[in-house]
Structures are given as structure tokens and as C-alpha cells.
Design brief:
mainly alpha, Receptor-associated Protein, three-stranded antiparallel β-sheet, 15 helices, 5% strand, extended
């Protein structure tokens, strides 16, 4: 909760401000630790439904990536933790993120650890992020941990962004194709069809099929849109359920052509997360639990959660992952080598780099193949459509 307060300092001057705390007593205690006398304090009023959803208050993944790199850079420069967050609060392009940085700085000044202060903002910093920071505090390697985090978040963000960008172009071309076809079937072909029917000539079978499709779209197009809209809402609601998410995630990794890309993306994310956690001193079981939370696929999440139970019972990680269709044997064998040689962190780093390169290479190949195929498909579809109605028109004009 956010509390607005007024305090009297040692100089006798009254000052106001805001502080985030779990309850009123915690807020008062935090202010008193700063040597301030609280004259008034009350919870911040809710400013309305739309204030929390304002685009101005949105903190994107990119914002977190940038601020993590800034934190790592300033820790490398031996800047104190509180000063780091004060600087980020005053010099931040995103006002909402700047406010969060200021609140973290206030908590640190009140005596809280960095991980505790960040954990209050779980909409920005994931459990993975907080656990990394906590492990850095416990091991005394906080500077190294923030460097690991910055590198890891940048790699993840770049890979995910490239996958999304690669899927935008095919979606745009497919949408364009559908719009062009709908315009042809509803506006162009009906007018031409009336001319062909009035001519009284024998209509070829392919022209009859096109004219029939056009008539169906004109007569039932609105109904089809309603059915599609209702189906879309139903699928959207179903995708929010546990079974729906499992079905969607299963489809992602099993769809031809796209499935291998998604599998390599999830494997890259899984191995990279585990490597980052283990080199930061997080125990194996906890690393698996945190990785299962951020892998973003229910199929791989289930595999990792089962592996947690297997590792707890004493089985090596390689044995826990073996026999799973979604986990390649090359990865299982490499993990087994890392366990036997005591170089599991190095092996995971190597495999993370391998799968990341595989993802990027497959994206390049897919984009290179999709562009000409979809353009040719668009041209052929429109060409066949036009030919089926223009040929009878040509025959009519030739017979005159």
C-alpha cells in the first residue's frame, strides 16, 4: 500500500511525501527509523479505475532490461545501493518506473535489503529476479549477480523480440490476402457474375464454383462474422483455463514448421535460466522451481516440476529429464557430462548459447522461405480468381 505522510525533521521543518509499506504500522516504523516524527499519515486514495491502466503507468519488459543494465553498470562503478536507486528515480524516461525506484530507495534507506525492497514490486520483478538478487546478497556477489541478470534479460528479450518480429510479416501478408479475397467475393465477382448469367453461355465448372462461393459469402457473410466472433471469444476464454493453456502450449510445440522453433525457444529459455541461477549460487531444486515459473509453457513447466520431485528424491537432473519427448537426448547427455565432471554450469551455458543460435538461425530460414511463398501464394490466388471470371467475359466479347 502507498501511504501519504507529513513528518517533522530534526530541523523542525515539516515535510510531506509518500511511502510504500505492507500496513500502517510498517510505514510509521520505516519513517521513524529515518529519525522523522510523523505528524500525519494515511493511505493514498484510489484515483479511479483507469489510473492504474494508463499507458503512462505501463512498465514494459524493455524498461526492466534497461534499468537492470543501469543497476549493473553503477554497481560496477562502486556506487552505493541507495544512491543507485535514487539516481534511477530522478533520471528515468518512464515516470512510473522512476516512482518505483524511489520507493525501493526509501525501503533501502529504512534498512531493508534490496531483495526485500524489490519483492514489494512483484509486477515488475519476477520471483526469478528476486531470488537472484537474494542469492547475491547472501553470497556477497551482488555486483556479479546484477551483471548476470542484465546479460540474461537482454538475451531473453532479444530472442523473444526476434521471434515476434518474424511472425508479424506472415500475419500481415495472410491478413492482406484474406481482405483482398473478401473484397473480390463481395464486390467484384457478384457484378461480373450477373453479366455472365445474362449472357446465357455455358459457364465452366471452375467459374461456377467461384460464383457459388461468392454468393455464399454475400448471403451468409455477416452470419459467418458473428459465428467467428463468438468462437473467438469462446477460444479466448478457454485459453485462460488450465486445460486451455495446456492445449495451446501443446499445440505450439507440435505444430509443423513452427513447433521446432517454439521448442528451441523454450529450451533456450529453460537452460539459460538454470545456468544464470546456478552460477549465482541458487540451489538446484530452487533453480528448477524458478525456471518452471518463467519458462512460459505448461508442457515444459510440468516437466520441470516433475524434475523437482525427482531431484529431491536423489535422482540426478539428467535422469529426471531423460525419457521426455520434449527434451532432446543431446541436452540430457550434455547435462550428464556436466554432472559427472562438476562443470554443469559451463555445460548449461554452452547449451544455452547453442539453442539461442538455433532459434535465431531458424527464424532467418523461416523468414527467407515465408516471404516468397506467401507472395507467390497471394498472386496465384488472386490470379486464379480473376481468370475464372474474366475468361467467360472474354468469351462473351469474342462472340459479339
Amino acid at each position: 500500500m502507498i501511504f501519504n505522510y507529513k513528518t517533522i525533521g530534526q530541523d523542525g521543518v515539516e515535510r510531506g511525501g509518500s511511502i510504500e509499506a505492507s500496513n500502517l504500522d510498517a510505514a510509521v516504523l520505516a519513517l521513524q527509523k529515518k529519525g522523522l516524527i510523523v505528524s500525519s499519515i494515511h493511505p493514498e486514495e484510489n484515483k479511479g479505475l483507469f489510473s492504474s491502466w494508463s499507458l503512462l503507468n505501463r512498465i514494459s519488459t524493455r524498461d526492466v532490461v534497461v534499468v537492470s543494465r543501469q543497476i549493473a553498470t553503477m554497481f560496477n562503478a562502486q556506487v552505493s545501493a541507495m544512491q543507485v536507486f535514487r539516481m534511477l528515480a530522478t533520471d528515468n524516461a518512464n515516470p512510473a518506473l522512476g516512482k518505483k525506484m524511489n520507493e525501493i530507495a526509501n525501503d533501502i534507506q529504512a534498512g531493508n535489503q534490496i531483495s526485500v525492497a524489490m519483492a514489494k514490486h512483484d509486477t515488475i520483478f519476477s520471483p526469478f529476479y528476486i531470488s537472484m538478487v537474494r542469492s547475491g546478497e547472501e553470497s556477497g556477489k551482488l555486483k556479479d549477480v546484477f551483471n548476470y541478470l542484465a546479460d540474461h534479460l537482454e538475451r531473453t528479450y532479444d530472442t523473444t523480440s526476434k521471434v515476434r518480429s518474424a511472425l508479424i510479416y506472415p500475419a500481415f501478408v495472410a491478413t492482406t490476402f484474406i481482405v483482398v479475397m473478401l473484397l473480390m467475393f463481395t464486390m467484384v465477382i457478384p457484378k461480373i457474375a450477373s453479366i455472365i448469367k445474362d449472357s446465357g453461355q455455358v459457364v465452366p465448372i471452375y467459374t461456377t464454383i467461384v460464383m457459388g462461393i461468392s454468393q455464399f459469402v454475400v448471403d451468409y457473410g455477416l452470419l459467418m462474422l458473428v459465428v467467428l466472433a463468438i468462437s473467438g471469444v469462446f477460444l479466448w476464454q478457454y485459453a485462460k483455463t488450465n486445460s486451455g493453456q495446456i492445449a495451446l502450449d501443446d499445440a505450439k510445440v507440435k505444430t509443423p514448421y513452427v513447433g521446432p522453433l517454439y521448442r528451441k525457444l523454450y529450451l533456450s529459455r529453460m537452460v539459460d535460466n538454470m545456468n544464470t541461477l546456478l552460477i549465482s549460487g541458487v540451489p538446484m531444486v530452487r533453480a528448477l522451481e524458478l525456471t518452471s515459473d518463467v519458462v512460459d509453457n505448461r508442457i515444459y513447466e510440468g516437466i520441470l516440476r516433475q524434475s523437482v520431485e525427482d531431484v529431491k528424491s536423489g535422482r540426478p537432473l539428467s535422469d529426471a529429464l531423460s525419457g521426455k519427448d520434449e527434451i532432446p537426448m543431446i541436452l540430457v547427455n550434455m547435462i550428464k557430462v556436466g554432472e559427472e565432471t562438476g562443470e554443469l554450469g559451463s555445460v548449461l551455458k554452452t547449451m544455452a548459447n547453442f539453442y539461442r543460435r538455433e532459434v535465431l538461425n531458424q527464424i532467418d530460414v523461416m523468414v527467407g522461405m515465408i516471404e516468397p511463398v506467401m507472395i507467390v501464394g497471394l498472386g496465384v490466388g488472386v490470379g486464379v480468381l480473376l481468370a475464372s471470371v474474366l475468361m467467360p467475359i472474354y468469351n462473351i466479347s469474342s462472340g459479339m
